[in-house]
Design a protein that fits this description.
The complex is a heterodimer.
Chain A (H helix, E strand, L loop, with lengths): L1 E6 L1 H7 L2 E5 L6 H9 L3 H7 L6 E4 L2 E2 L11 E5 L6
Helix pairs in contact in A: 1-3, 2-3
Chain B lengths: L5 E4 L5 H9 L7 E8 L3 E2 L2 E2 L2 E6 L3 H16 L2 E9 L1 E3 L4 E9 L2 H18 L2 E7 L2 E4 L4 H8 L20
Parallel strand pairs in B: 1-6
Antiparallel strand pairs in B: 2-8, 3-4, 5-7, 5-9, 6-8, 9-10
Chain lengths: 83, 169
C-alpha cells in the first residue's frame, strides 16, 4: 500500500519535506519507520531508534502501534515545542 | 484578523481587536481571560537572537480545534480563540494568544490555562533558536507534560531523559 510520508523540523532538514513510500499491507507506524531506517544513510540517521520521534497518522498524533491503510498520510517529527 | 476559532499565521496580532471580536454580540459574557506567550531574550542560559517556528499545516489547525471542543465540554465557556504565529520572530515578539469568554471568571481562567497547557505538548509546532553559538532546535520539556497531566491527560511528548531512549514498540 502507498503511504504519503511527511517530515518536520530536524527530520525535514535531514530528509526533505516528505516522500511516497510503498509498504506491505498490515504495516503499522513502527514497521514504516523500520522500513525507512533499513534504507540506511540519511534515513537511518534521521529516523534511527536512538532518536525520540513522534508520529501522526492522517493529522492525528498516533503511537507506533497504529495500523496504517492505503493512502494514509504519516508524519514523523521530534517532540512538540509550541506555545 | 480572520474569523474562526484558530488562526496560524506569520502576522502579529492585536489583543484588543481579538478580544473585541470574541465578545462581540454576546451579552452573556461576564469574563474574558487571555494569555499571550512572547519570545524571551534568553533560554537555558544562552541569549536568543531570534526564534523560528515551524508547524504541520492542516494538522496544527485540526489539533487546536479539537482542544477547543474539549475545553467547551469541560468548562462553562462561551467562546475561545487561539492565534499562533509561525516563521521568524525577534525577542519580545508575541508568539501565541489564547482568549476565552465566559459568564463568570472561574471558567475563563481555567479554560485559558487548560488550552495553553494542552497546546504546549499536543499541537504540532517546533521552535528553533538562533543565538551566538548558532542555531538549535528547542528541546521539549517534561514540565510541560506534567502541566497537562494535572488536567488528567497524558501528554507523552517530552523524551524520558532518565535512561536510554525508549524503543517505543
Amino acid at each position: 500500500m502507498k503511504i504519503a510520508v511527511r517530515y518536520f523540523a530536524s527530520v525535514r532538514e535531514a530528509l526533505g519535506p516528505g516522500e511516497d513510500v510503498e509498504i506491505g499491507a498490515g504495516a503499522d507506524i513502527a514497521a514504516l519507520r523500520d522500513a525507512l531506517i533499513a534504507r540506511g544513510g540519511r534515513h537511518a540517521e534521521a529516523l534511527g531508534r536512538e532518536r525520540v520521534l513522534r508520529g501522526a497518522r492522517n493529522l492525528v498524533l498516533s503511537g507506533e502501534t497504529t495500523a496504517l491503510g492505503e493512502g494514509d498520510e504519516v508524519g514523523f517529527f521530534p517532540p512538540l515545542t509550541g506555545g | 484578523m480572520s474569523a474562526g476559532r484558530v488562526s496560524i499565521r506569520q502576522d502579529d496580532f492585536d489583543l484588543g481587536a481579538e478580544v473585541a471580536a470574541l465578545r462581540k454580540g454576546d451579552g452573556g459574557v461576564g469574563a474574558v481571560a487571555a494569555f499571550i506567550g512572547t519570545v524571551r531574550d534568553r533560554n537555558d542560559g544562552a541569549s536568543v537572537q531570534s526564534l523560528e517556528l515551524e508547524h504541520y499545516p492542516g494538522m496544527t489547525e485540526a489539533a487546536i480545534e479539537a482542544m477547543i471542543d474539549e475545553a467547551m465540554r469541560r468548562f462553562e465557556i462561551r467562546a475561545a480563540r487561539v492565534v499562533h504565529r509561525v516563521g521568524v520572530l525577534a525577542p519580545s515578539a508575541q508568539i501565541v494568544l489564547v482568549a476565552v469568554t465566559s459568564a463568570h471568571r472561574g471558567s475563563a481562567f481555567q479554560a485559558c490555562e487548560f488550552l495553553m497547557d494542552y497546546l504546549k505538548t499536543q499541537a504540532p509546532f517546533w521552535k528553533k533558536e538562533a543565538g551566538p553559538a548558532g542555531v538549535r532546535w528547542v528541546d521539549a520539556r517534561v514540565a510541560d507534560d506534567a502541566a497537562l497531566a494535572r488536567w488528567g491527560i497524558a501528554a507523552d511528548n517530552a523524551p524520558d531523559r532518565s535512561g536510554a531512549a525508549p524503543a517505543q514498540r
